[in-house]
Amino acid sequence: MSIVVKNLTYVYNEDMPFASKALDNISFEIEDKDFVGIIGHTGSGKSTLIQHLNGILKPSYGEIYINDFNITDPDLNLTEIRKRVGVVFQYPEYQLFEETVEKDIAFGPSNLGLDSEEINNRVKLSMKSVGLNYEEYKDKSPFELSGGQKRRVAIAGVIAMNPEVLILDEPTAGLDPGGRDEIFELIRTLHKDHNMTIILSSHSMDDMAKLAKTIIVMNGGKIEFMGTPREVFNSHANRLKEIGLDIPQTIELAIKLREKGFDIRQDILTIEEAKQEILRVMRGRGKC
Ligand code: ADP
Ligand code: MG
Question: Whose CA is nearest to atom 17 of ligand 1?
Fold first, then answer.
C-alpha cells in the first residue's frame, strides 16, 4: 500500500480573518512497508499532516492517494480507507471510554459489522500484540491501568481493525523512559512481524535514528528534508539545530570528537556503531 501526497495545502479556518496555513504545498510518497518518522518542532504541521492520511481532515488544495484511491475524492467511502489505515492520536488513552478493556478494544471491529467470533479473535490477537494478557486484563476497567498500559489498550483498539498502515501521533508523549522503550519496541514488532507500514511523529531523535527507514522533517508547514536517517541527521545536522531540533546523541558525540581532531566518521546512528568507530580510531592511535 503506497501513499502519495500531491501539493497538499491545509488552511485552518479558511475564509475567516484568523485563517492560518498549517501545511504549505507539500508532496511526498511513502512506499509499502516503510517505517517513516515525522519530526519537527511544535506547530510545524505534523498532526495536521497525520490527520489527512485517513481522511479526518480534507485538504484545502491537493490530493492524497492510498493505493491509487484518491481519498480526497468526495464520493469515496472512507470506511474502506479507515479499515486499511489506522490512526493512533496523541494521548489516545483520553479516548478510552468503555467499562472494560475487552469492550474498548472491540469497539472499532464491532463497527465494521464483523461477527462476534471474529471480533473476539481480533481482541485476543491485538491484546497479545501489545503485550497484555487477555485473561488478566479483559475485564479490568481501562481507568485502573497504568499510563503505559492504557496507551497499549488504545493502540490495541486500532490494531484490532487490522490496518495495513499504522499511523501514530507522538505515541510516547508523556511516558517515562521505560514506558517509551516498551511502546517503541511494540511498534518495531508490528512493523517487523506483522508487516505493517508505520508512520509516526516523535521528538525522540535517538529512537527515530534507530528505528525509522525514512525521516520526514517538517518546518513551518513544509517538508524541510526527507531521506534515510543517515542522510537527514548526518548531512543536515546544523540545519536541524537551526530549526530547533535535536540530533541523535551519537552524531552529536561524533561532531564533538571531530572538532577535537579525531578522525571519526560522523554518520553514526547507534551506540554499537559509535563503540566500533571509537575503538577503530583509538587503535589507529595505538591507544588500545
Ligand atoms: P504539530 O503537530 O507539529 O505540533 P500542528 O499540525 O498541530 O503541528 O499545527 C500546525 C499549525 O496549525 C500550528 O500553527 C497550529 O497552531 C495550527 N493549528 C493546529 N490545530 C489548529 C486548529 N484546530 N485551529 C487552528 N489552528 C490550528
Ligand atoms: Mg502535534
Answer: 22
User: Which of helix, strand or coil describes residue 23?
Assistant: strand
Q: Which ligand is nearest to the CA of 216?
A: 1
Ligand 1 geometric centre to CA of 46 (Å): 8
**pTM of the full predicted structure?**
0.92
What are the chain's domains? 3-230 (3.40.50.300), 248-288 (no CATH)
Residue whose CA is closest, atom 12 of ligand 1? 22
Q: What is the pLDDT of residues 210-249, one digit of tens each?
A: 999 999 999 999 999 999 999 999 889 999 999 999 999 9
CA distances from 83 to 54, 160, 161, 278 (A): 10, 10, 6, 48
Q: Is the dihedral of CA 61, 66, 69, 75 positive or negative?
A: negative
Q: What's the DSSP call for residue 182?
A: H
Tell me which of 11, 13, 15, 20 to substitute to probe ligand 1's pocket, judged by most ligand atoms within 8 Å of the beta carbon.
Answer: 20
Q: 23 C-alpha vs ligand 1 centroid, how far in Å? A: 9
For the purposes of burial, counting CB atoms within 10 Å of the CB of 178, is it exposed (0-12), middle (13-18) or buried (19 or more)? exposed
